[in-house]
Amino acid sequence: MVNESGQLYTIEGFAAALLLVFTIYLILSATNILTPGDTHITDMQLEQLGNDALAMMDTPTQYVETGNAYTAKQSDLEKYIMSPTNANLAEFNSTLSDYLNVKNISRDSLHYNAIVWYRNDVTGSIGSYQFSRSLPAITGREHFVRVTRLVTLSGLPIVPPPDPIFSNPPPAIPPNPPNPTMDNRPQTVLLDVTLWRD
Amino acid sequence: MHDDSGQMSIDFLIGFTVFLIAFIFVATLSSGLFINLQSKTIDYDAVAYRTGVILAEDPGYAFDPTINTNTTRWELLDTLYIDRTIRFGLAISKDYPNILSKGKVQSFFTNGYGFSKDDYKSRLIFGDYPYRFNITLKSVGGSTEYPTPSVADDATYLQKYGYIRRVVDIKEPGDAVFALPDPAFATSPIVNISIGFEDLYDTERGDIYRLRPLDETIVINITNFNGRTLNDIKFNGNIPPMPPDISPTIEIYKNTATKDPTKRVVLGTTGINNLLLFIDPRYTRQFMGQDDSAGKISLNLTFDQPVVSTSQFTYTYNNAADTVITPPYLVPAVMEVKIW
């Protein structure tokens, strides 16, 4: 019962005080949860898979002692980038597709688009070129993830082939760096791969 | 207050306002009240990810009573001591994540090796919650040895499960093929094979591409016997156990390219045209200690008739006229972990 003095009776006062204290305790023990959506776990799984695939492609399957500086101790990934022939690009496509999609039962449906970034030492500019993509030939789809790997091109600089009159058969090394605007010097390029699931 | 004005007192309004603000806060933040309770779906993915990391990037951990020290070679423990395994892991070492040891893979995925389902949970998944698991390994083209039998708690899993897939390389130890000369030029019935640890300990190759005889099985294939009988075998002067006492030892098979139990060789076995030997690293370690940078294995096989000239076969990384070496190589594979 309340009167004009503005005071609460003792029991009601205690009850109100307990209610307030308990409410404050609930507020302080509660935490705010941000829910940006359910894609972060799927993104993490795709990123892990993509990083693993590039890392394993950049690991030589065997130790090769013979051959010149272009072929010795070279990973498959470096070979594909250094010498982007049709055969090598097809092999890159099938290898990366297998690494991304092979499962114990059935097969996944992951697609990719790969771009190589490099730096021109003379101009200081950054360049890029389309390296490979899986079919259908699109550059991406929501929701995609990006994985990258720095690949050291240890086969550069490429020594120009000797006079063709005196070379029989012609040397197996390519006459130019992988891309016409790329420097012919030891360098590391960035392989930028976007992945998405259909 | 009972009056006719219909107005509420100031203290009631203030008290009610405070209460209402507090109630609105609680209603807004009530979703966070349950944060300490278990969320199954998110937890399964986290556990699956952690399990995948432990398998692919960690070599494992155990206590070896025979050398009284901790070790990562849990797969080489004597069967009496496999319970001393503290944590599973398949990588050859912490320095080379995603490069798996074939010996660890075989021990982990072999049902009946000695580990129960509870052993897998306590040494790999951890935690008090009774997780169920399904772990598989499948090669990416080429090798038919994988898929290995999967390790599973329950073959049928629920619709919602935590999942991770890792791409790995499995290190195969390679082998050596020694071809005997034409029997017309044979002068000795003793085939001697020398395996020098210094020859194999190539720091340029690193642990990924060199043969580690104290960790990996040494595979030797000797061809062109022309129907001989094995009379004796000595490993640094010791006779390895023959069937039925077979582990750990040197497993020998005749006239086959794979481990065929029907073609197992014992002393006195006749009709040998080719010999396939598997030297178990646990057997090697009994005589060679812990250091794989020094030491030498001398393997002598004695037959009933001359089979070889005076030259000795040497296991290195180089080919010769009568020797073809396949150094260690990597086989790509995909490992899947499902947790529910």
Describe the structure.
The complex is a heterodimer of chains A (198) and B (340). Chain A is α+β, with helices and mostly antiparallel strands and 198 residues long. Helix content of chain A is 31%, strand content 20%. Chain A has helices at 10-29, 39-57, 76-82, 86-101, and strands spanning 110-119, 126-133, 144-153, 187-197. Chain A has a 4-stranded antiparallel β-sheet with strand order 2-1-4-3. The longest helix of chain A is centred in the N-terminal third of the chain and has 20 residues, at 10-29. The termini of chain A are far apart. Chain B is α+β, with helices and mostly antiparallel strands. Chain B is 21% helix and 27% strand. Chain B has a 5-stranded mixed β-sheet with strand order 4-7-17-5-6. Chain B has a 5-stranded mixed β-sheet with strand order 12-13-10-8-16. In chain B, a hairpin with a 4-residue loop joins strand 1 and strand 2 (69-71). Chain B is elongated, with a radius of gyration of 30 Å.
Query: Largest beta sheet of chain B: what is the strand line-up?
Result: 4-7-17-5-6
Question: What is the radius of gyration of chain B?
Answer: 30 Å
Low-confidence stretches of chain A: none
Q: What number is the mean pLDDT of chain B?
A: 87
Oligomeric state of the chains? heterodimer
> How are helices and strands ordered from N to C of chain B?
HHEEEEHHEEEEEHHEEEEHEEEE
The backbone outline of chain A, from C-alpha atoms, is: elongated
Average pLDDT for all residues of chain A:
81
* H and E string of chain A: HHHHEEEE
Structural class of chain B: alpha+beta
How many DSSP H or I helices of chain B?
A: 7
Cross-sheet strand order for the largest sheet of chain A: 2-1-4-3
What is Rg of chain A? 30 Å
| Content-based structural category of chain A | alpha+beta
Helix content of chain A: 25-40%
Q: What does the largest sheet of chain A look like? A: 4 strands, antiparallel
Largest sheet of chain B: 5 strands, mixed
Low-confidence stretches of chain B: none
Number of strands of chain A: 4
Give the largest chain-chain interface (CB within 8 Å): A-B, 38 and 50 residues
Number of strands of chain B: 17
